[in-house]
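Journal club prep, shared notes

We agreed each person brings one worked example of a sequence with its structure written out as tokens. Mine is Iron complex transport system substrate-binding protein. I'm keeping it raw so we can talk through how to read the token line rather than staring at a rendered picture. Sequence first:
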Amino acid sequence: MTAVHGSYAQDAQQKTITITDELGREVTLPVPVKAVYPDLWYQTEIVRAIGAGKTIVAVDQTADPNKNPTNSEYFAEFANVPDAGNFNGPNWETIASSGAEVFFARRNSPWQDAVEKLTPFGIKVVVVSTWDPKVLRAQLPNVGKIFGAEKGAAALAQLYDDIDDVLTQRLKDAPRKTVYFENNADFVTSVPGSGWHDTIVLGGGKNIFEDVNIGNTSSASVHTYTVDPVAIIDRNPDVIIHNGVDGLTSGYRPWDKQKLADQAQRIVDRPGWSTIKAVQDKNVFVFNNFLYSALGKQLGALVVAKWLYPDRLADVDLDAYFARWLEPQGVKARPASDYLYKLGG
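Then the structure, token by token:
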């Protein structure tokens, strides 16, 4: 069924509340919000998952099904809403004319520009980085209040907490295995301040580059920090995890498994990498980010835990948790194995 966007809660009487967003900014706005622009697909997913998808009156290019063939089915309901283009430099006129009441932003978005450009149109800016697992969990009650979707937000919070309980119980006293995380390009990693780093820590691992301090966690560098390949060899990780294949990072439609296998083999074949413990033990993993980043990357943390400690989490059904995420997105569940690959198959 195609949603009629902009009609959500149109019969509900709005009231004014003040919430404190992720950055400590107090934002006063009428609720429930009837129209929103989420500035990245992570934001779009959360709004839809709590049951407020009909409020989305414009999307960025990452949530436009007309521009993303692998997500054409997943984001199909947004095929006819305006596309504001690049999330790092959106078309402000498109957003202003969309009827949006709120610009739902991340801390690494151009939210300051949004305040300047959209305030004259009465559009409020709320910053909640939905790719950051801890921030998402802390802010879910606020997100529920904003959209009058407290029940949906509580359901997501429960899913998050259920995963957190598994991680806490199963990883108790587990030795921290070392991890090299590679973000969709050779020798590009993620460091503290990034949600990718958080998945490693929450999943019971130790990022081999956890000592790198960028300082500004709003900087893109925390997600895409280039390292010397010799440093990777010297730090000798127990596990290697690589995001993406051939420039692609995410898609509801699964990729050809051979592409995942080829990427894993390219990693193994790098000069000097045969000495790395992860390569010797065949603990090299490649993933499609569609699953890994679900629920602010909390699903990714569970994936990491199962990879690092398969014996401790042998009976944990990843598919069951993934299905609880996909159901409120309005699409059929898929097995987690569609999005994950281990060296050797």
